[in-house]
């Protein structure tokens, strides 16, 4: 039984949407990752969820859409719609403090501050000295192995102290 | 979501539809409003010109993405395969948004699939730089260095476009392109300062790329008109910035000949550039492969 009052409850719909996890970083919810832009109830009772891609070609977007609709349907919101917006572009600065903590707990080093938007982009001729700490041993002595990792948003680093490779969410 | 695989959810989305292979189809709304690819075209911007301009920028990205993924299973190291595939994926994402924008602006309602898979070579508007065959790894690095440097300079300025969709697509792409440029620049250094053989191959790769640079800075009539309205960037205005960046990389890599001089290289004859739909046989071959499945199964959902 889905009552009209229940279907139009945006606060509960928001809680449901915010609890959906990212398909590629399943320790994070879409809210933790900062890709959930808004949840509202349209005049006809449809729940409209707004999300934003991390990268232009992020292939997880389709899975996010499907997961959101499935979760909302299961929670008693049969009429739901997911819209994607581009502007302003997602920044790794939008990952919440809770999200950063969860990343570190799962062995993925969270991003440092992103470059401020606007102005010419400086050219990096050498592998960037990374400020990332090893999520296993905590050492700050780390190096970048490859700036392109298993997904668009992750780079591959190595700890010089414990010699273990680890993933790092890129600053963008 | 807990306990459910994304694939289950996708399958549920397609209950009763036996034709889907993965996902909900490339026609899924990539970006709705908030300056997404479906935003209304501002009244002062001629929609036909905007559509053509989006095709130019979109085709550049689509064709180079296809070239880059040819390196899958063929790159020198697994890390480079992953990197090149990631770069291709970013460019493919940019292409999808730009082609969607083009289909919206030209009023035909063609989606990204129709534009990517059901146009022939003569209707593609990419510069010839991106369609040239990969060659060896050094040549691919040389091409990517020039392309990413040039496109980053264009996109940085396009963030102020009078078309809100184009501005948003550019703002999204800037940080991606900065990663691509750094990747290519760092490999240029490694190859240039590596062995005699790597230096020789890089020099040869850059020599192959050099004759294709004129098109990058030639101003097409569509760019001329749209830049006057603040919607496009005249590509000749980025020449000095591109030349300066490439010169820094060249010096650091210990290479002899500059890629660009003080002035833009001579443009192709009017009406004879890739922007006009004039292409080499290399694009025809690339499209034959890229479009073969879509054309063999035009009704399939992807």
From TrEMBL, chain A:
InterPro entries: Fe-S_Maturation_MIP18, FSCA_dom_sf, MIP18-like, PaaD-like, Zn_ribbon_PaaD. It comes from the Bacteria. Residues 18-74 form the MIP18 family-like domain. Pfam families: FeS_assembly_P (PF01883), Zn_ribbon_PaaD (PF23451). Transmembrane segments: none annotated. Residues 127-170 form the PaaD zinc beta ribbon domain. This is Phenylacetate-CoA oxygenase subunit PaaJ. The gene is paaJ.
From TrEMBL, chain B:
Transmembrane segments: none annotated. It comes from the Bacteria. Residues 257-278 are annotated as: Disordered. Coiled coil: none annotated. GO terms for biological process: phenylacetate catabolic process. InterPro entries: Aromatic_CoA_ox/epox, Ferritin-like, Ferritin-like_SF, PaaA_PaaC, PaaC. GO terms for cellular component: cytosol. This is Phenylacetate-CoA oxygenase subunit PaaI. It comes from Marinitenerispora sediminis. The lineage of its organism: Bacteria, Bacillati, Actinomycetota, Actinomycetes, Streptosporangiales. The gene is paaI.
